């Protein structure tokens, strides 16, 4: 197998199986009391798409392929630091979903095709599960973990420097989003919300993958452009799917944006123009990779896979 011809399904399978095992390792390492362990385990093992870990792995492989003449012909495809970064983004993302579903936020009772964490375990446990998953995301990037080579101080510092401010921006974005409920917002205002709420973690995922492969400044710039376009496209798509898809397909309730009187791209520009906008963002994202990396980058496959969800 070479990176140039790495099939996206193969990459997804590798990411999912590696992540599943590593989630168990990190949760067992945390030794959480009951029912906190069960609540975290439940939330972390729902049928999520694993977009952010896939972005880490694809960012890593894209940089690696362009910086070494040799092809990647061994399994596993990613190194231990890359596994840590995949864990960090999935733990942080799942924490945000648990808290976002709480009655004081979006008050949703379905997530990843199952009852939300607070419906299953109660609000207090769900709140703590979100809290501890957030802590574990940072631990994944820095602590000694069974089955992982120790991470160097330099690498841990560079990953944390990419991750921490973007984790913080996700929460700021959520505040801006709450502030915008029941209000008419402009497109630039909506964009500012989502660049933080959704985009920042997507950016962290790609850049941490790149950092694990020792990306240079030009590569970081291209990957930042890719991630920022994909991050926004992903949110525009989420707004569209909220009105065009079904609860069964998404595994979460549809129509919830309307119910909460949220500002969305669909409200701002209608489904058709929002779809065109998402497409243009995905195209801009792939262009940034095309211009700077091998055309067979798995980041391009990933952007195309995300775009296909639309159809
Ligand atoms: C800190 C409470 C708190 C919230 C932060 C990220 C976030 C803000 C809330 C999550 C809810 C939400 C609708 C976010 C928009 C981004 C988005 C589309 C999330 C869903 O991500 P997917 O589709 O989910 O990757 P899966 O379940 O597939 O992992």
Automatic annotation (TrEMBL):
GO cellular component entries: cytoplasm
Cofactors: Mg(2+)
Keyword Magnesium: yes
Alphabetical list of CDD domains matching this protein: Trans_IPPS_HT
Keyword annotations from UniProtKB, A to Z: Isoprene biosynthesis, Magnesium, Metal-binding, Transferase
Domain of life: Bacteria
A biological process from GO: phospholipid biosynthetic process
Keyword flag Metal-binding: yes
Family: Belongs to the FPP/GGPP synthase family.
NCBIfam families: FPPsyn (NF045485)
Protein name: Polyprenyl synthetase family protein
Organism of origin: Psychrobacter sanguinis
